[in-house]
Write a sequence for this structure.
């Protein structure tokens, strides 16, 4: 559990481990949790099924944030990496089912907006999405997206390495 | 010709539902119905499972209030084992249940309802949300985040994780509280209590603006039900069942909770997966009653903690018939929850290592009743000689409120709808009636996934006249 307010990067994996490829976000977090200690790279890692506004506080305590999520409106198997400061709302799922400023769930852009408005946070914010059409309750992650877990983790590690470069 | 209006989905609630508003031949509102369009069925697929698995299984019913199900389920399992759990385990269960209530109330008040209270019922739906609140009153939004996050953090520190902790088990809890975690929680509580009191003051200053809503938001006489303590105090874990009318006149008092089936029956309607419990002696639907924070404070003689009792004195001056006052009751219960957590954490035996009783099944039937954020939660199990579940029946807080919610939206629709067209302000007010009850539909219907929800306006023949979707 993270109690310290270090200025680490924060990686947040959204998703439900028992809803098919919705498990992608948590699976990438698990992979990072496995790799980070060996690479001596520090980052705060969160897996959550319910991305609520309270995550804004954690974002505000970070250097930068990367969200990882599966998306139904992207070609299955494709990885899309977006800069949330430049992305259009439609590109980051504002029209998808988990939309957010209106319910218990928050979209990444809403969370970043809250961190900026409430805590005057300024930092890089990215969204890494993996396309899928498999969100069946009770099923496990598909082979297609399983094969993308390492690629996604590597993409995030590259960002973290670059950030640690003096 | 009669007609129907549809609101689909109802927003800023947990789960998915729709509202239909039925107009008569004269175009006046005849009835409004709250349709819960999702089904889960945990009662059925629990059958055949070993009873000791039930707390963790039942916690999966909901991502918002898993702790409530953990607690009620574990209590039912204690009864199946016929054990009296260690006193420290009772205190620790009380703490995690109170943390659940605090974080859930913070979610309801700050994230879901404060946009209406701060920005107004008629403000633009584009900004009438937590992001809009953050822009207009950052302090209010930050306070909501602090309270919610602290409630979740207490759950995580005790249970190991924020959502679906498995720490509450049949016979007690799985491990004791550490000194480090106790002290960490204790040092965060004063700020939480101060924030809750400041928010109470802010809320009370807003009340005047909502006199019309207060008068028509499920404002009618009826019964209220909750657990109360042995001395009439606010109670969230044990105690007795009390039912009383709007004047506080008890119709049931000091009933052992496991006897709830002697006074409550459940009706099924064709328009919703949500069952409609009612008070048996008055029949269906006259036996409508309300549960949750409004009912708990209406029925309690006092809270039992000093700061909450101070706020409770103001609450007692209000007419409790209006569901609008659920908001105030929630804020008072947040104060109470953090005060009571502090009291429990300071008790001498809170770090005791004896926190679990072990036994096999020693009874064939068990009941677990506790107060969840939204009201009285009832788990009832039967097992066979091998300890396998043969029967599970759950009555969830949101279900208890079903009849009152339906009557409440009918009242509001009759007041606000004067034509066959819906303005956004009208739509929002009818939704806001539902939001005062803070229904948790995943809990109450055992639903899979998320389904859309809307408000429909229908004529007497069922023809759709107007529809509002988001």
């Amino acid at each position: 559990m993270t109690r310290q307010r270090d200025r680490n990067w924060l990686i947040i994996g959204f998703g439900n481990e028992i809803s098919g490829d919705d498990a992608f976000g948590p699976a990438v977090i698990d992979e990072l949790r496995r790799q980070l200690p060996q690479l001596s790279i520090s980052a705060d890692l969160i897996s959550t099924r319910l991305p609520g506004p309270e995550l804004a506080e954690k974002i505000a305590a970070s250097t930068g944030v990367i969200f990882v999520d599966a998306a139904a409106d992207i070609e299955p198997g494709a990885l899309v990496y977006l800069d949330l400061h430049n992305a259009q709302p439609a590109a980051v799922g504002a029209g998808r089912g988990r939309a957010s400023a209106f319910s218990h769930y928050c979209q990444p852009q809403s969370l970043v907006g809250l961190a900026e408005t409430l805590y005057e946070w300024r930092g890089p914010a990215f969204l890494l999405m993996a396309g899928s059409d498999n969100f069946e309750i009770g099923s496990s992650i598909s082979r297609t997206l399983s094969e993308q877990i390492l690629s996604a983790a590597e993409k995030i590690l590259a960002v973290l390495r670059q950030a640690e470069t003096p | 010709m009669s007609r129907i209006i549809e609101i689909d989905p109802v927003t800023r609630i947990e789960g998915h539902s729709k509202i239909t508003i039925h107009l008569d031949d004269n175009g006046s509102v005849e009835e409004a119905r709250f349709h819960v369009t999702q089904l889960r069925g945990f009662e059925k697929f629990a059958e055949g499972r070993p009873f000791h698995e039930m707390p963790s299984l039942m916690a999966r019913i909901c991502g918002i209030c898993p702790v409530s199900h953990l607690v009620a389920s574990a209590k039912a399992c204690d009864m199946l084992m016929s054990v009296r759990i260690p006193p420290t385990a009772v205190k620790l269960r009380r703490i995690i249940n109170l943390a659940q209530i605090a974080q859930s109330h913070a979610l309801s008040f700050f994230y879901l309802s404060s946009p209406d209270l701060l920005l107004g019922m008629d403000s633009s739906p584009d900004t009438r949300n937590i992001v809009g609140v953050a822009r207009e009153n950052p302090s209010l939004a930050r306070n909501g985040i602090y309270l919610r996050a602290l409630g979740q953090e207490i759950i995580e520190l005790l249970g190991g994780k924020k959502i679906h902790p498995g720490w509450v088990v049949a016979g007690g809890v799985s491990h004791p509280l550490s000194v480090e975690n106790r002290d960490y929680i204790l040092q965060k509580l004063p700020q939480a209590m101060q924030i809750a009191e400041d928010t109470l003051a802010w809320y009370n200053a807003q009340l005047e603006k909502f006199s019309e809503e207060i008068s028509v938001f499920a404002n009618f006489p009826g019964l209220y039900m909750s657990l109360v303590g042995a001395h009439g105090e606010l109670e969230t874990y044990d105690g007795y069942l009390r039912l009383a009318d709007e004047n506080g006149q008890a119709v049931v008092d000091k009933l052992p909770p496991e006897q709830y089936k002697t006074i409550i029956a459940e009706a099924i309607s064709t328009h919703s997966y949500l069952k409609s419990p009612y008070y048996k002696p008055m029949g269906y639907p006259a036996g409508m009653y309300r549960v949750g924070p409004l009912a708990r404070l209406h029925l309690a003689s006092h809270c039992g903690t000093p700061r909450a009792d101070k706020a409770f004195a103001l609450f007692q001056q209000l007419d409790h018939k209006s569901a609008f006052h659920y908001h105030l009751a929630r804020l008072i219960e947040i104060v109470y929850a953090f005060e009571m957590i502090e009291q429990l954490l300071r008790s001498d035996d809170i770090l005791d290592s004896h926190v679990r009783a072990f036994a096999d099944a020693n009874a064939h039937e068990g009941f677990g009743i506790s107060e969840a954020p939204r009201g009285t939660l009832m788990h009832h199990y039967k097992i066979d000689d091998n300890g396998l579940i043969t029967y599970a029946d759950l009555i969830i807080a949101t279900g208890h409120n079903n009849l009152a919610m339906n009557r409440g939206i009918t009242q509001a629709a009759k007041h606000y709808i004067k034509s066959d067209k819906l303005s956004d302000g009208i739509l929002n007010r009818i939704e806001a009636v539902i939001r005062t009850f803070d229904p948790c539909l995943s809990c109450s219907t055992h639903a899979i996934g998320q389904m859309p929800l809307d408000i429909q306006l229908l004529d007497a023949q069922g023809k759709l006249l107007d529809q509002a979707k988001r």
Summary: Residues 347 and 442 of chain B are 36 Å apart (CA to CA). The first strand of chain B starts at residue 3 and ends at 8.
